[in-house]
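Deviations from the work plan: none for this task. Representative record:
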Amino acid sequence: MLLRYTFFRVLMLIPVSIAISVVIFMIVHLLPGDPIDNLIRVGSSPDDRTALIAKYGLDQPLFVQYFRWIGAMFQGDFGEAIVLRRPVADLIAQNLPYSLQLGALAFLFSSIVGITLGTISATTRSAWVEQIVRGFILIGSTVPGFWLALLMILFFAVQLQWFPVSGAKGWQSLVLPVLTIGVGGVALVARVTRVALLDVRKEDFVTLLHAKGLPSRTILTGHLMPHAMLPVVTILALRIGWILGGAVTVEFVFGRPGLGSLLIRALGQRDYPVVQGCLLMLALAVMLGTLIGDVAQAAMDPRVREAKT
Amino acid sequence: MGYAIKSKLLSGTALIAAGFISTAAWSQEATIAFASGELGATSYNPVTSSNLNSATSLIYDRLVEQDADQSYHPHLATSWEEAADGMSWTFHLKDGVTFHDGTAFNAQSVADWIPDFAETENAYLVGAVASVEVIDDLTVKFVMSRPEPNFLYNLSSSFMGVPGAAAYDSLGENFGVTDAVGTGPFKLESFAIGLETVLVRNDDYAWASDLSENQGAAHLERVTFREIPDQSTAFLELKTGGLDVLLGVPTDFLQILKAESNINVIQMPGTGINYMPINVTAAPFDDIKVREATALAINQEAIVSSIYNGVGAPAHNFLISSLPEADVSPELNVSFDVEKANALLDEAGWVKSDGPVRMKDGEALSVKLFTQNGTEFTALAQVIQAQLADIGMEAVITVFDSSTIRDEYKANRHQLAVRGYDWNNSDILDWFFSGERLGYPNVSMWKDEEGQRLNDVAMKDSKNSMERVANFKAYHEYVLSQHLFVPIYEPTTNIAYNAERVNVPDPVRGTRFRAQTVLDMTVVK
């Protein structure tokens, strides 16, 4: 059953991807400005400019350009960057590992710390844990990433000198970016965990378990957590895509390569194939995140897979 | 490396790592951050790249170097002769020069290299070269299809660093990415696109140009170039010792940097001008009197002292002051004269009635002032807005991103704009004022018969460098007489370095921070 459900969900990705590719292509090409102005230099002639426009097919109607792009895409060809002059697949392959590393660590950090804080907060109902969670929620949901990043640098790298200011060398350089991106997730996950645990606790079967004399710890790990994790898993899965996208400004401030840095540079220069490639990767990450969330939910709860198939 | 020392306290493994980094810091090495304008290079292939950074000049040598005063100096070429009719150039090459892979540099290396430009987007650099003839092992002759009096300028550009022909052919697409072979003072060790480039000393180097004191191998054994896109982050890296040299410091950062005791700043003459183009097709600027009044309303000296704290120089014409073509008849230079500006507007029929804004036929003298995002340009636009208000002209500021603003120019929706260029050659006049490039780059939208004739003469009919200077000067003077723009500011290029870590020669020779300066750099013991 689970297999069939998964197959059905993967099949759904195809029309969604095609729709997304149209939207991405249109947005990118309707932006004011063009890549050729970022390519030509003083000394080249107006004819050189015309030749370049023709060379990159930018004189063709938009739908022709779209079908060329998507056609090549189906053969695994991301195209050639216009301004950056490299195959787009190479550029993405060079930058993606940095983003994945940062994203995966930020994801782990926000899951582990978030679930722990949420659980402590729900079970102990201690005032100071509550305050910490609230603090995280406040910072995580209101402070812009680039500003938090600068604060982190000023405090941990300039004042305390515990970590390097920027770069991507060694584990030290990962600490501050991971914290910056992870803080928002911690708040969200802690809140969802807490609410879910408190909800499940009110269920009749929990009262029964207590009545049967099971230790509180066993009830928590064996019975409360599996139920409460359902919404948490959904939220976490949705964050997979968000973390990659949210890293854009953080990568910039910390001077790290990555999909976000590549996207910002390419966008400024209107390097269409690169922008399209990066956006498609980010969209794919969001879609995969949702897929993983749905499948995990279906695996954990038989009602989900039966209702949806 | 302060953070490394502190991290010793954190864990045992970090102790070993920190120890390694600390000893490395004592050796002859330096970390340099690129200026923001040269970030994002994806290759060190000078022939095919559209974007090359400062590190390129350390890997490859050029035949000719250009100094800050725009004069040309021998490098891989020891001397040269330009034929009287401009139809050939002969270069005598330095003996004993070898590429990083051990192959010899000679006339054949040049003959093998020039044809590589064909079909690339850098082909215009050698567009006038018909063929390259090897006269003898160390003499090479460029046969031209037309005179190219700007040839030395092209040869001194980063794009004309000489690559090793054997490696160029065998590496193909990967040349400049996985490996790079030149004759320069440093060899490419590793290149992580968007992150850093590590170069190691070429111990055999003994052919520096006369722009360097040091004629042998570099003092530094290793140079790391880093890409840090955020200026605040780069400044903090310099302050905390993560960086030794920061290229291209924005002028508004200078005050903060000067407050740091360990940081020195070198100001090099810049290679560009900030200016305000005037759209001659958009009323009221179709009237030359209004254009001249606008030009006379701008107080360059006040701008330099108020926005730039006196750093850099006021600009009074379109070219940087070190170019001979900038030396125009004094009366054509544009200088602040608010009384004359007011008189011209009165003559043009724009009169002051009761309000602060001048009126003509019931219409107010209100114009659009465009600029692109970036603190420098927005601050400049605000000061210009205030100065224009003094002559009764209301300017409404709109800020665009750098790609969007070009579409505005092309659609002819602009009137005034604040912008800048970075180019140390008089052919910039053709770029911004040629009638064939209306909208962008010709933001002034100027198409004029006499202007085009003078442009053609300067661009195509100059036989040698002397003639070229005279022709471009004549074109420049005519452009100035038409009031197509307002010159504002000639910025400096600012380099900051940690004086407790490295010594950087001041003044920096050459038009930009390049190999000649790195050769003379030393580490403070």
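The first helix of chain B runs from residue 2 to 7.
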